[in-house]
Amino acid sequence: MTIVTTLPAAPPQPGARPQPEARPRPEARLCTCWPGATVWLTGLPSAGKTTIAEELAGRLRREHRRVEVLDGDQIRKFLSADLGFSRDDRNTNVQRIGMVAEVLARNGVLVLVPVIAPFTDSREAVRARHRAAATPYLEVHVATPVEVCSVRDVKGLYAKQAAGEISGLTGVDDPYEAPRAPDLRIESHTQTVRESASALHALLTERGLA
User: Fold this and answer.
1) Which of 21, 30, 157, 173 is the most exposed place for a label (fewest CB within 10 A)?
2) Which regions of 21-114 does DSSP assign to beta strands (E)?
């Protein structure tokens, strides 16, 4: 017979501070069962890119995924405040976002990027960066027609352009090169936000990313 003796805990030393109970950090509950990835949602202003990204992010967080949404306006404010809206500046902005997204994705975060990125060569450079790092990358075209976007006009940009207050509005008086073969094309004007997010979630599941 084996006798197991449990020794009493040593009494605390005089003046010693009590040690707090170890508690799991909130992020410890986040699942890392899937690899990180970047999902770039491109489309015209007011196409619904950010709305779809936030809807999907909420769903993924409820599934305990590590998710970040890189909002274009926030990036412009904090990372690209020195840039304008020339073609070169737009390209620089996209490459900065692409670099941040790839680093996050490489470290297990699912990154949603609802940013216009109007030029094909800029988007392809971001894809190439991810390919070189063996980091999953998906391109989603939120293909809302300009007529619908101008009615939504979430930020009032179309109204300002029509009034002559601004110029260089993507899809109106500045070019937008739509993806020819995106991983997914979403026509947000024909379905609800939840349906659009579900279509993207289904693609992630199909690719083993959700």
Assistant:
1) 21
2) 37-42, 67-69, 110-114
Q: How many CB atoms lie within 10 A of CB 107?
A: 11
140, 182 contact by CB (below 8 A): yes
List alpha helices for 17-86, DSSP H: 49-62, 72-78
pLDDT tens profile 166-183: 999 999 999 999 999 999
Per-residue pLDDT of 26-82, as tens digits, reads 444 555 577 999 999 999 999 999 999 999 999 999 999 999 999 999 999 999 999
Tokens representing 20 are: 């707090």
Q: How confident is the model at residue 9 (pLDDT cuts 50, 70, 90)?
A: very low
3-state secondary structure of 51: helix
Question: What backbone torsions phi and psi does residue 108 show, to the nearest 5 degrees?
Answer: 90, 10
Cα of 66 vs its chain's centroid, Å:
11
Beta-bridge partner residues of 186: 142
For residue 92, the surrounding DSSP H or E stretch is: helix 87-106
CA proximity to 157, closest of 175, 141, 173, 177: 173
Q: Is 111 helix (H, G, I), strand (E, B) or coil?
A: strand
Distances (CA, A) of 137 to 75, 106, 127, 130, 180: 20, 11, 7, 6, 16
